[in-house]
């Protein structure tokens, strides 16, 4: 009964909001037209010059893994409404290479609790995951566009991690996420749309950076009483810097406000237990605090991900560098992922990590790799470079320099 009510409610709101969504957000998930539909197992797909779009799933499996290729051609997109109303679906894995998820792609997948998103993803369409049972979601760091109501009525959603790089949180993105408790808006965001957190009764705090200059609500006289369009509930605390747009908005609308804590002083060493690392503050700027990774705290750890950001003491710092000798001589590390925010890898950062066989790095921001950074890692190491074609080419060129430790037996792809 509850599930039926949820479905009916979602259909009604989706119908009311669809026209507005298209006007405000555009067809973020729309894909290129193809000549004809074809079938591969339970999938219907269309093939264009740039790759394959999955247009429909006709199966009833609980766990689905989308293929990365069909007949040798790469899958690059999940089309509009491709998995719409697949009520049996509980888990979905989307492969690397997929760059966009269409409008309504997983809308009304009422039992969907687990999703694996690829780092290649750049766009999530309107209502992309609306009315699912997701409890947490980490949106990949290369995503630049999230459509209107993308997570509308995900009433079990408690945790959301948004990527640096998106510039707008679109209209009603998290409306009716009744279990969402807190969210941090990335520094790249400049505007927050209408009704983003409508009917989020458990939302206690929203951290808003100075980069946000537009909080998009109706002005007085423009249906101000329509609570649907309010951005925040009155029991939500806005966390921001004084005199920012968010601060002024909160004060004008009698919303509780709390000032952001100050970053630690430059040179301070901070421990980040959740990431198994220690970092050093390289900039204590309120607007753009940064840190460099100094060392690993769990010496027995075999796998490590260097994140794009870390949060310590209520302050979110961008991770922009791996310090010189940070992991030198570590014999346990076998697999490391380097976040897209890293701009510099210092001298001998991974030197002597003889069992380090797998490195994943995103090209784009990484411009400096110092002397012997990878000298003495496993001779059969595989380095996977992700990003745009131009950025990947430039980074691969750097990695193939003898000065950084390159040997011909490495596989760089």
UniProtKB/TrEMBL annotation:
One Pfam family of this chain: LRR_5
Source taxon at top rank: Bacteria
TM annotation in the entry: none
Protein name: Leucine-rich repeat domain-containing protein
Organism the protein comes from: Coprococcus ammoniilyticus
Lineage per the UniProt record: Bacteria, Bacillati, Bacillota, Clostridia, Lachnospirales
């Amino acid at each position: 009964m509850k599930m039926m009510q949820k479905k009916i409610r979602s259909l009604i709101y989706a119908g009311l909001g669809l026209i507005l969504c298209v006007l405000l957000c555009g067809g973020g998930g729309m894909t290129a037209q193809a000549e004809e539909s074809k079938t591969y197992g339970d999938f219907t797909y269309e093939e264009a010059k740039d790759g394959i779009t999955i247009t429909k799933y006709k199966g009833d499996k609980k766990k689905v893994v989308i293929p990365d290729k069909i007949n040798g051609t790469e899958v690059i997109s999940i089309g509009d409404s491709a998995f719409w109303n697949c009520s049996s679906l509980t888990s979905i894995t989307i492969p690397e290479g997929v760059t966009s998820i269409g409008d309504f792609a997983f809308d009304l997948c009422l039992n969907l609790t687990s999703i694996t998103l690829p780092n290649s993803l750049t766009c999530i369409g309107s209502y992309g995951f609306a009315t699912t049972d997701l409890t947490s979601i980490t949106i990949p760091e290369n995503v630049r566009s999230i459509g209107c109501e993308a997570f509308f009525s995900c009433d079990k959603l408690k945790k959301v991690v948004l990527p640096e790089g998106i510039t707008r949180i679109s209209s009603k993105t998290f409306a009716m996420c009744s279990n969402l408790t807190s969210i941090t808006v990335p520094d790249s965001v400049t505007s927050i749309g209408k009704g983003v957190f409508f009917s989020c009764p458990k939302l206690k705090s929203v951290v808003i950076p100075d980069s946000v200059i537009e909080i998009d609500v109706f002005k007085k006289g423009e249906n101000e009483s329509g609570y649907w369009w309010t951005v925040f509930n009155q029991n939500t605390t806005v966390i921001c810097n004084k005199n920012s747009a968010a601060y002024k908005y909160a004060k004008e609308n009698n919303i509780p406000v709390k000032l952001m804590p100050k970053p630690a002083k430059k040179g301070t060493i901070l421990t980040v237990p959740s990431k198994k690392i220690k970092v050093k503050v390289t900039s204590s700027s309120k607007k753009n605090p940064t840190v460099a990774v100094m060392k690993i705290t769990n010496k027995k750890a075999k796998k490590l991900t260097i994140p794009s950001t870390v949060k310590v003491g209520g302050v979110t710092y961008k991770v922009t560098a791996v310090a010189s000798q940070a992991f030198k001589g570590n014999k346990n590390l076998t697999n490391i992922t380097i976040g897209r925010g890293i701009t510099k890898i210092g001298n001998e950062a991974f030197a002597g990590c003889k069992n380090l066989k797998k490195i994943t790095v995103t090209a784009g921001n990484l411009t400096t790799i110092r002397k012997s950074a990878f000298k003495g890692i496993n001779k059969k190491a595989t380095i996977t470079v992700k990003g745009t074609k131009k950025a990947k080419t430039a980074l691969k060129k750097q990695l193939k320099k003898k000065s950084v430790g390159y040997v011909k037996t490495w596989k760089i792809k």
